[in-house]
Prior knowledge:
Layout: E1 3-7, E2 15-21, E3 34-42, E4 49-56, E5 68-75, E6 82-83, E7 100-109, E8 114-123, E9 126-134, E10 142-150, E11 160-167, E12 170-177, E13 180-188, E14 193-200, E15 208-214, E16 220-225, E17 249-253, E18 259-263, E19 276-277, E20 281-291, E21 295-302, E22 310-317, E23 323-328, E24 333-337, E25 348-352, E26 359-366, E27 370-375, E28 380-384, E29 394-413
Antiparallel strand pairs: 1-2, 3-4, 4-5, 5-6, 7-8, 8-9, 9-10, 11-12, 12-13, 13-14, 15-16, 16-17, 17-18, 19-29, 20-29, 21-26, 21-29, 22-23, 22-29, 23-24, 24-25, 26-27, 27-28
Amino acid sequence: MHWSHADSPDAVHWRELPVALYPPPTSNPADNSGRFTGSAVVDNSTGALHLIFTDFTNIDANPGAVAETVISASSTDGTTFAYSPKNPLIAHPPPGSSNAFRDPKVFWDKNDETWKMVVGSGEGDKGRVQLYVAKDEALLSWEYVSVVAEGDGSTGNIWECPNMFPIDDKWVLFYGGDALGFYEVGSYNGTNFVSEKMGLLDAGPDSYAMQWYVDDAGRNLAVTWMGNWPTSKWPSRINGWAGAQSVTRELFLRDDGGLGSKPIAEVANLASGPIQNLGKKNVHGTIKVGSTNTARLQLEVDLKASNAPAFTTFLYQSKAESVVLKYNFGNRTLTLDTTNAGYGQAGTWSAAIAAPNNVLTLDILIDRSSVEIFAGDGTAMTATVFPRYQESTDIKIEAVGGKAVFNSIKLTPFGSTWKA
């Protein structure tokens, strides 16, 4: 496993850079030792980019080694990285980490104004997050503090990619467990996290290992892997790539106290043509919105004026297949159905959507092989699709048994995020 590298001026348009980290050389084809997940901070005194991450060693191929340690690399030019001579920073997992010890995430702890680090762990049937504190300004010396959070067995026996950060007057902890991304909102005193609200980071099938960071404007932003352990073999592997990252999302506290997300405002800069605005529309039957494989579909629905039992949005539709997104007015539940939609993971996923003032808003980002759905209350649903046929590009809306009243239906063509 390597660290690939890309940079961006706006967290929307990206440029590929040379690979940042390579696994150690080996002549053994069975040795899959590599550089696993970690995090990065900027040294404000030098401008250097400081990486702290998991060094994974295949102990079958390297008897006597420790499987997972924490090491460091840094760069002053942003493209060439040198490993620290003080590696490993953490040579052994702490007690109570027999299942795993990986994915260090560095954060600034405003409780005692120190740099802290959370590391994913697990013991028995419980996932854990281990907490460390930096003992030097260079972030090369770390001291173990405590188990800052622990599961009850219902969220997996290993917690991966933990992230912890303050937001408004609360603290957020999120992590991956049992092939799902969980968040917990609560309080944190510098050594212990107390959960008050828990939920899924994403209600769809293809979101895992989300990573949080703060931009220059002070926004809490995040990117998630659009994939998951149950994902089928990637059909794109024949084209030389597998998996993808989501659009950059802004995190916020929802009205119910949970953690919500939405596309950052700069996503609008991907527009490659004028907005097609259907305006106010009473849908009773089926209407065609457009036909495209890259676009943004924005819907605003008047729930009080609608009298249909549900409305359905069909994406990637042809005679052979489609993604089905159905909203039920009665229980205000949104269901994503990919059982007849391309080569991605097939199934149905649902989430209850809050709709203040009886208005439902949906912001749907359609890419050639994925769809990212954001409801106005902060719910996100992500799925990889990989349509089977080039003809599968139609977008339609249907209401049966009554009318669905749309205040607006907007379709914006999107261009590439990748800079030439």
